[in-house]
UniProtKB/TrEMBL annotation:
Any GO molecular function: magnesium ion binding
Protein name: HAD family hydrolase
Organism: Ancrocorticia populi
Highest rank taxon of the organism: Bacteria
InterPro entries reported for this sequence: HAD-like_sf, HAD-SF_hydro_IIB, HAD_sf
Keyword Hydrolase: yes
């Protein structure tokens, strides 16, 4: 059933906004994988008004910096689903996984693969990302989100601090999740699609990273606008008083949001941001 976007006349006063944080896929980025063409000028206008635009994604920092290259200087990025908060070359916050946990998770993935499941893992670090699989199908899928990628015989040998393990299964997650059951109590498991699951430290998510940025900048939730579409955006949405679910969002995200923006296909994020700027 189609969801009707909120009439902008029902928005609260957004003139005091200091941070705009937006999810990427199916929120800002459309099905074609492209950012809306208007976003560059909008980000520049927001910056001129003292408003930080903060992309929030499961991607690595380098990928986000590539995507936003025309305006990336000085931008803050929430990457790795909240595992990293970075501005330019500076890491503002990092939620590192323990080496012993990494070893256990990789053992599970390797066991699944040796048992016939078409699965692989990518380790997302502060510097870049790492995989062991070399086949084109897997590497191509991973490189959609992780541009700086190194193939290692043993990914655990990476000289880096790892903040997230992304597990991708061509066979879906049904064979994978039972093996990760024990981690549901001790870690954060985040689902960004039907075939991707991320394993991170407990209580690591986009919302915690946004709250850390708010603390650094002295900005409150009432001065924050957030956009999202899926369950891995739930904590992000809770960190901003002015939360917008795009009309194509998961029903639970729509139910939790304060407002509904037009769909991603209708460039809903752009429409709301233009509304904010028009009233400055």
């Amino acid at each position: 059933m189609p969801v009707t976007p909120t009439d902008p006349r029902q928005y609260a006063d957004l003139s005091g906004i200091k941070i705009v944080a937006s999810d990427m896929d199916n929120t800002l980025v459309g099905a074609d994988g492209e950012l809306p063409g208007e976003i560059w000028d909008i980000i520049r206008e927001l910056k001129a008004e003292g408003i930080q635009f903060v992309p929030a994604s499961g991607r690595q920092v380098a990928t986000l910096q590539d995507m936003f290259a025309p305006v990336a200087d000085g931008m803050t990025f929430i990457s790795a689903n909240g595992g990293l908060l970075a501005r330019d070359s500076e890491i503002l916050y990092s939620a590192r996984l323990k080496p012993e946990d990494l070893g256990d998770i990789m053992t599970i993935v390797r066991d699944l693969a040796s048992g016939g499941t078409n699965v692989g893992a990518v380790l997302i670090g502060e510097k870049q990302s790492y995989v062991e699989r070399t086949d084109t199908a897997f590497v191509s899928e991973v490189q959609r989100y992780f541009h700086q990628l190194q193939i290692l015989e043993d990914a655990l040998e990476a000289d880096d601090h790892i903040v997230k393990v992304g597990i991708y299964s061509f066979d879906g997650l049904d064979p994978v999740l039972p093996r990760l059951e024990s981690y549901q109590q001790t870690h954060s498991l985040t689902f960004s699609a039907d075939d991707w699951v991320d394993v991170q430290g407990k209580n690591v998510n986009k919302g915690v990273a946004l709250e850390e940025l708010q603390r650094i900048l002295g900005v409150g939730a009432d001065e924050t606008v957030v956009f999202g579409d899926y369950l891995n955006d739930s904590e992000l949405m809770a960190a901003g008083t002015h939360s917008f679910a795009v009309a194509n969002a998961h029903p639970d995200v729509i139910a939790a949001a304060r407002y509904v923006a037009p769909s991603c296909a209708e460039r809903g994020v752009v429409q709301v941001l233009q509304h904010i700027l028009d009233r400055k």
